[in-house]
Design a protein that fits this description.
Helix content is 69%, strand content 0%. The protein is mainly α.
């Protein structure tokens, strides 16, 4: 999935959680997001800033669903996971045997292949420890880190009921 497709598929509450996290922990990222998206839509950031917070979030979420917002959308998701969900990233990297700094950044390159058993263990640990909606989103974002993703992770994202997005399950 591309970032704009993820934003269309995920529960809107995840976008709200992400934006709340940035507003609380890194206001510069939030302001940059609003400014970048507004400029791309030929709007002045102040126009967006005058909206209520609920309307700002709604507008940001809708704009992130556009293909033109893919670069920023992916960056936001990566930054949110790297800074706001470090323990989850560490758990998954540990399960896969990927060397990392304990804060979500890996040492070296990502593996060309993921061991099936380690992948299943990693997914199971994440689902035990974290909200399944966040786990599903994280695994999709992780899978974007390699062109075409990993075949075995693609298969699990398509078939594992706990990793499907609600909108995909209802369709």
């Amino acid at each position: 999935m591309k970032p704009h497709e993820l934003y269309k598929a995920i529960d809107p509450s995840l976008v709200t959680q992400m934006l709340d996290w940035f507003r609380s922990n890194d206001k510069n990222v939030y302001k940059h997001t609003v400014a970048t998206l507004a400029n791309a839509r030929k709007l002045r950031p102040i126009y967006i800033g005058k909206k209520s917070m609920a309307d700002q979030y709604k507008w940001i979420a809708q704009t992130l669903q556009l293909r033109a917002s893919d670069t920023l959308g992916e960056h936001l998701l990566q930054a949110w996971f790297m800074a706001g969900h470090q323990a989850m990233l560490g758990t998954f990297c540990d399960a896969l045997g990927i060397l990392h700094d304990g804060k979500g950044s890996i040492h070296g390159d990502l593996p060309k292949a993921l061991d099936d058993e380690r992948l299943d263990t990693g997914i199971a640990r994440l689902l035990e420890q974290s909200d399944q909606k966040i786990v599903a989103l994280y695994l999709h974002v992780f899978n974007m880190q390699r062109e075409g993703g990993w075949d075995n992770l693609n298969a699990r994202l398509a078939s594992h009921e706990q990793l499907k997005f609600a909108s995909a399950c209802e369709a």
